[in-house]
Amino acid sequence: MFYHVQSLINEIVADEPDPSAANALQEGLGGQFGEMRTMMQYLFQSFNFRGDAVPYLDLIQGVGVEEISHVELITKTISRLLDGSPEYNGKKFEAPGKGKASLGMAKEQQNPHHYIVGAQSALPVDAAGNPWNGSWVHNHGNLVLDLMDNLVLEATGRLQKCRIYQMSENKTLRATVSFLIVRDEAHQAAFAKALETLGVDWGKVLPIPKFDSSQFPEVKRLLDAGIHREQYHFRLDSSQMEKIFSGSAPLNDGTELVTMKEPRESYPIPMMPERPEQFAPGLDPELQDLADAFSEFKDNLLAPKKKLAKSIKKK
Amino acid sequence: MFYHVQSLINEIVADEPDPSAANALQEGLGGQFGEMRTMMQYLFQSFNFRGDAVPYLDLIQGVGVEEISHVELITKTISRLLDGSPEYNGKKFEAPGKGKASLGMAKEQQNPHHYIVGAQSALPVDAAGNPWNGSWVHNHGNLVLDLMDNLVLEATGRLQKCRIYQMSENKTLRATVSFLIVRDEAHQAAFAKALETLGVDWGKVLPIPKFDSSQFPEVKRLLDAGIHREQYHFRLDSSQMEKIFSGSAPLNDGTELVTMKEPRESYPIPMMPERPEQFAPGLDPELQDLADAFSEFKDNLLAPKKKLAKSIKKK
Amino acid sequence: MFYHVQSLINEIVADEPDPSAANALQEGLGGQFGEMRTMMQYLFQSFNFRGDAVPYLDLIQGVGVEEISHVELITKTISRLLDGSPEYNGKKFEAPGKGKASLGMAKEQQNPHHYIVGAQSALPVDAAGNPWNGSWVHNHGNLVLDLMDNLVLEATGRLQKCRIYQMSENKTLRATVSFLIVRDEAHQAAFAKALETLGVDWGKVLPIPKFDSSQFPEVKRLLDAGIHREQYHFRLDSSQMEKIFSGSAPLNDGTELVTMKEPRESYPIPMMPERPEQFAPGLDPELQDLADAFSEFKDNLLAPKKKLAKSIKKK
Amino acid sequence: MFYHVQSLINEIVADEPDPSAANALQEGLGGQFGEMRTMMQYLFQSFNFRGDAVPYLDLIQGVGVEEISHVELITKTISRLLDGSPEYNGKKFEAPGKGKASLGMAKEQQNPHHYIVGAQSALPVDAAGNPWNGSWVHNHGNLVLDLMDNLVLEATGRLQKCRIYQMSENKTLRATVSFLIVRDEAHQAAFAKALETLGVDWGKVLPIPKFDSSQFPEVKRLLDAGIHREQYHFRLDSSQMEKIFSGSAPLNDGTELVTMKEPRESYPIPMMPERPEQFAPGLDPELQDLADAFSEFKDNLLAPKKKLAKSIKKK
Amino acid sequence: MFYHVQSLINEIVADEPDPSAANALQEGLGGQFGEMRTMMQYLFQSFNFRGDAVPYLDLIQGVGVEEISHVELITKTISRLLDGSPEYNGKKFEAPGKGKASLGMAKEQQNPHHYIVGAQSALPVDAAGNPWNGSWVHNHGNLVLDLMDNLVLEATGRLQKCRIYQMSENKTLRATVSFLIVRDEAHQAAFAKALETLGVDWGKVLPIPKFDSSQFPEVKRLLDAGIHREQYHFRLDSSQMEKIFSGSAPLNDGTELVTMKEPRESYPIPMMPERPEQFAPGLDPELQDLADAFSEFKDNLLAPKKKLAKSIKKK
Amino acid sequence: MFYHVQSLINEIVADEPDPSAANALQEGLGGQFGEMRTMMQYLFQSFNFRGDAVPYLDLIQGVGVEEISHVELITKTISRLLDGSPEYNGKKFEAPGKGKASLGMAKEQQNPHHYIVGAQSALPVDAAGNPWNGSWVHNHGNLVLDLMDNLVLEATGRLQKCRIYQMSENKTLRATVSFLIVRDEAHQAAFAKALETLGVDWGKVLPIPKFDSSQFPEVKRLLDAGIHREQYHFRLDSSQMEKIFSGSAPLNDGTELVTMKEPRESYPIPMMPERPEQFAPGLDPELQDLADAFSEFKDNLLAPKKKLAKSIKKK
To answer: Fewer CB near the last or first residue (10 Å), C or N of chain E?
Structure first.
């Protein structure tokens, strides 16, 4: 059973809108090696787990739960990169119908769906506009094979994100991508370590791609903070993940792995403003009044004192 | 950010394997109107939410978090229906290679992937074998439209599950399907109520399909327990869901809606046994020893006292 | 602009339900070479037609309009073959929830979607359950190539239907399939003749497949009636189709081609009964009363005299 | 059975080519909520209709027939926006092979298929280049659910077209998009009204999106002409659509609904010129002579007098 | 550049038709981890290879060329398993149209496309009827990652084929599947060895699945012949594959790897008979005469003496 | 069984990078009418061939083998057009992480997958980014129909390539496209001739499109060399292709067809350099040393004398 807190696993850093950066980042969300796949692959593997090797189950599932928070983070990042992009390009929107094309830039974008189908927000598709596909979820049932498949998946995720990092200097993009690069290192460590317990010695090949990611300054800050050697189990009861995720990392970086319940910090979720040109959320004054009245009425019923206090404060 | 406990939102009831029932139930997991879609649709809508109508956001997101637990439940149910099905059909498996076809029944099944690709376990596909597709996630950005789309989705989910209920008397299938029918009623109530706050009067058309689901005995038990009038927010911080989900239900059943943090009860997750004919998990004695030794060693390091106690107990 | 009459282009012949025959026939509806493709291919080719060779345009478009009626016919046929199939298999349905699996046969069918997604009715998919796909519509813009592509399409349609004919003796299936075999001969003649006007001599290769389809008795009756040498333009204004579709057929059968406005006969559309086990249409007494009351009220408003007469007659 | 007249349901307004506007408009043709879907969804629902509630059948089917004409209109509009676009961009085409790249702009477009696969004409794909997919056709069999699904579909269609309207000031695009916005209002009214007859009171939520579309000047002209309160049944026999589509509209605009056989006006279909750079239609002089000769010969046979008159006139 | 000889890489062993075994085997041809994928993945990786590490290129490409011959072998095997299946089931075909359903069994099969679309022959689809998809081809460009991805691919191929082996005792199926199991072991060795050269020590985890495949008697015969320790480069010029594929195998089986130009033996390709019920090849006597006459005539032109000898022999 | 030589069937002509030309050319590789389809379609048709009309089999299969070499050629061409494109656009790459976006142009491209998923190299997708799909392979089993389908396929291939030729003056693109135009003419001749042997007289309609391709100068050079009238069987044993592919061509160009074993010339395969910004191949110095050491060691073992010679030479 799953629970939620309304916070993010990493910060959304403010910068200008950048719709083509948003489109590139879609690969990290809805691509064949993106966060929707990692989330679904690890959840399916853990729901369908056979046998009693509980530490392996807890490792796979713990990473899977983290991936839901990655989907949340990357979705927010894409939406932030898209948000306000029509206005930002010098075509400020006032109200629909004034005869000018307030979304004129939209039809020139790589994926016009960001404006026609979504309301300047993330979609469950990849950077070429193909929808996410369930056939990408690999769950072979064989433990060694599933672990190796997961390692390939994390390695590809890191590779693609290192490429995306180089595609834009936008800070909103780079903050999120850097965090995911570091977490993909941790997840490579997790699955490589699990295979190490079964006798594999990885020598010098990890991490994939084999390069010093601290060359990316945003990544360096996270490495310095040790984010790459932590793994969180996100379990409200308890987890045996630590039996595997501890000791020295197999990534040739000399670190010691640490299992924790959850990250040391979490971050506020920025509210997204209304976008009248998208009719989003599209509550006209009449509907807004209804919504407010209802909310008001319920406030009175549910928490009369709080409401009272609020009325007083208004005065 | 998301958290997990290793329990189920409803009970897995024991019965015989039934692979074609498992295949029908795939529609409820990976079908166009199944739980993977509801989960993704509500999560995307809440991650991309615009404006400050927080109670609506909390309602959509709370239902979305519940759907992850539904994916967990339905996956476990399908796997249970498949588990041991080759043996159950009178073709007991001993060891690969003895010249007899221990998975002989597999090639006659509707979706042989349950045995070739998965290891007698659930897949992210529908009942016709088509993989789940991201284009099914509808997130229009317009609040009224998103709520109506969600109502259509829940109504279709309930309709299809009422049809699936009639396809098999298997208790494992019916227990899960009945629970989902009841929860789909609660979710219809949730989205219909949200539209009611904006001025819609549903008259007599709800729930869809319009019939007394207490005719299904397993459903009746859950209705008697009031499961259909509860909605859980699963928030570790707090939620404004209650502002909408309270008062009288719009489903013509005279109930009062109640918002709670989580269900009153949760249920243990049954372990799935090894299946040597599927090479799942496929740890041969050599690998098993390695896994055990590592686990043992770590136990000693991590919790030397517990380990000691265990050694003593063994004696 | 398009118009409709509520009649069928061929008769639905009564026979027992046969769900696997219905599934095979799905290929003729939603398959890569089925009626949805022919309809869309010819409509796109005619909407996108370049140049002033109007007789060719009118020929392609006229066949395209006929294909919409084929979609109507084949949809009705599939639904007829599915309709009542659960009961027919000895599992008579009474009412949902009585503890027995009234749709028990559904989960054993090749495409359970006929019962879970549809209500014992046709789907826009092929015989392997794959949804119809727009990439199958070929519209090259080059007239000679489009005509050759259409000829290949009609030849494949006829080939597949001749194979389907042999898959079942069910009269409902064979009546429709035979009609489509004969019409595919006419359409082969149409596109082959158009290429003949541009200089091709087909020699002995047509029709494809090259065999005497009058060996199929239901086909023979239609050939005897001359249905294979007629082409209809279905135009309420006028058409130049006749300039091409006249003279001797290029199909090695010695017939003379005739262009007509529409078929000599059309056929009534059988009503499909309610299916409570599918919740289709699912108007409970309460909703039915509303529908009836409204309909009654409108009858009074719109045609008071007719209503009056009806009331009198009831007495 | 279906019929055709060679006229359009709305006018194609002349303006410059605009290939990215054409691409955006593809969403309205081949997108998940475009005209190909509405057409197929309503036709399937009416072909598979169960029970004797004929006015509801006639309403759904009547709208479905109109959608075929919308597919015709939007296809023509897209082709018009593409037609001549290479030349328009300052790269006038003379003849293939002169060493210059006469289609050079094509490879920079969002969907190069408009030039490689089609001949500067519409494709059955969406604005992101994904082909139309049959799984988008929803036909649940349950009348209330089908009507609600249709309402969501029309609402989404209108929402997306209001967004597309803002993406280009091109008159060809805006004329067609505005007509479709107005017709989507009529169709929202149709399905909302049908649900009203079953007891739903829509309050203030319709139309979706909730805004005054008369802010778009091209839309205003159509609203002033009352196009949004008419529904056409396009039946050559007769229809009971009027029983539902009459009385006050549920769209908060104070109009009275009117059922008519067909629109008051129809519009000529502009011929599309040859495009030698696309080899479309690609009849070289040799083939053109054959086509002409054949057509001439047939003219003589079919209408000797008209031909004679023509010969005389030539002198 | 590629060349061909009309022989098979392994023998087609005769046995009865078995259409559901054929369908299961489709996974090995057109499935996500089947031979079409391995072939395309390795060819793309070698065509897109960067850098001068030629032995790695030659290894990947050599395996890729072998996979084309695997596609040939598995296609032939599937077709053999389907060939004559309608007759085999006791419904002997005489000629189309005699009123009996000579392909009656076809509509009951899991994938009716084997009879409707193909002519009792293999299709480029998987065991659930989904067409092969290009997104399954992984070519990351990073050598270590590509090698690991290939190892996962071969491991999954072997796992699935070991499962399929157990699904049928049919000798035609088992002969081919056993050969592919053994070759997948060789290919696991190839990619594991390549990673070993870069420093990985695989310990005990290989092969995947970890079990003694000599338990399958048909596999044992091939292992005894050493087929699992050979790799062929199929190069008409020369190859550096041997630099990697030599020395001890990393599969825990104590063998020495050997690189050879091609397999020691090759096998004749059985001719497939005509199937009149499928209209395949469908040359009626008229067309057959034309084909023969042409062939005869050409024989005379091309090889007059041989022809002469043949004529004399006839007398 | 298949063999390979490390040479190309045509030359890669050097020119500047051009990523949008590369994307257009993807249609010729992974498009519905591209080389991956022709290759797979002809291989499937020949593997599934029925009956004893061996010259037809040898013709289809011979063309199929050539198509593998076309896939090789077009893949290399696309990669060449992409290779170095980021640097070429004025954003020279030094090393990842220096704070500048070295792949900045990538996110503006039509298919960012060329940089995120691939390493500046070809993908198995079409020009709109859709992955290649197995349903495009047509293998009807009926010989006349398969030949006509193949003719339509070759005609469409030539049509699309003639359009692509006009999209760019890049010499790398035009050299390959021109070669493919000429070979598609040869293949049109092959299938048209095969149908001619069965009695079809093509008159004036071929080739499709009907125009003098010698207007393209690069094409003219190849026509002058006679490449369009040759067909290669690529068989290491022997072939009866010549029985069909000889005599006068049916393409209205007055040529005589000639069957040969292989092309007169073949061409070297250019090596692709490392791309550090893509981490391709990504062997860091540590891994490179391992690879070199291993290779060195093996050289010593395998060819001690050659190695010795090399050492001496170094001095």
So the answer is: C
CA–CA dist A275, A284 (Å, integer): 12
- Least Cα distance to D121 among D85, D92, D95, D157 occurs for D85
Distance CA D182, CA D164 (A): 14
Q: Could you give the residue ranges of the DSSP H alpha helices within B83-123?
A: 85-88, 113-116
pLDDT band at E301 (very low <50, low <70, confident <90, very high): low
Pairwise CB contact (< 8 Å): F208 & C148: yes
Pick from E153, E252, E254: which is nearest to E203 by CA? E252
User: Is-contact F29 E107, C-beta < 8 A?
Assistant: no
Helix-helix angle F171-197:F54-82, to 10 degrees: 170
> Percentage of chain A with pLDDT > 70?
90
Tell me, yes or no, if B12 comes closer than 8 A to chain A by beta carbon: no
Residues across chain D: 315
DSSP tag of F3: E
Instruction: Say if residues E267 and E8 touch (Cβ distance below 8 Å).
Output: yes
For residue A288, how many other CB atoms are within 10 A of its CB?
14
| Calpha distance F278→D222 (Å, rounded) | 55
Distance in angstroms (rounded) separating the CA atoms of residues C96 and C78: 25
Q: What is the 3-state secondary structure (H, E, C) of F7-76?
A: CECCCCCCCCCCHHHHHHHHHHHHCCCCHHHHHHHHHHHHHCCECCCHHHHHHHHHHHHHHHHHHHHHHH
Q: What confidence tier does B94 reach under pLDDT thresholds 50, 70, 90?
A: low
> Cα–Cα distance between A144 and B284 in angstroms, integer?
11
Query: Would an 8 Å CB–CB cutoff place F108 in contact with chain C?
Result: no
The answer to which of B98-112, D15-29, D120-134 has the lowest mean pLDDT is B98-112
- What would the mean pLDDT of F99-103 be, rounded to a whole number? 79
Q: Which of C152, C206, C251 has the highest number of chain F CBs within 10 A, making it the mutation to test binding with F?
A: C152
> Over 80: is that where the pLDDT of B103 sits?
yes
> Among partner residues A96, A125, A286, which is closest to D166 by beta-carbon distance?
A96
Q: Respond yes or no on whether the N-terminal peptide bond of residue B19 is cis (omega within 30° of 0).
A: no
SS3 E83: coil
Give the distance from residue F289's alpha carbon to the nearest chain D alpha carbon, in angstroms.
43
Eight-state DSSP code of residue D169:
-
Strands A256-260 and A247-248: antiparallel
Chains that touch B (3 or more CB pairs under 8 A): A, C, D, E
pLDDT digits (tens, 9 = 90+) for B185-203: 999 999 999 999 999 999 9
Contact D233, D261 (CB under 8 A): yes
List B275's β-bridge partners, or say none. B280
Interface contact B106, partner E, CB < 8 A:
yes
In angstroms, the CA F152 to CA E180 distance is 36
Instruction: Name F93's Cβ contacts closer than 8 Å, sequence gap at least 6.
Output: F86, F87, F102, F103, F276, F277
Q: Name the burial class of residue A137, with classes exposed (0-12), middle (13-18) and buried (19+) by CB atoms within 10 angstroms of its CB.
A: buried
Which residues lie across from F201 on neighbouring strands? C201
Residue B53: both structure tokens together: 């109508």
* pLDDT, tens only, E188-218: 999 999 999 999 999 999 999 999 999 999 9
Q: How many CB atoms lie within 10 A of CB C225?
A: 13
CA distances from D235 to C4, D42, D54, D256 (A): 5, 15, 14, 22
A with C: 3 or more CB pairs under 8 Å? no
Per residue in F200-248, pLDDT tens? Answer: 999 999 999 999 999 999 999 999 999 999 999 999 999 999 999 999 9
Percentages of chain B per state (helix, strand, coil), in multiples of 5:
55, 10, 40
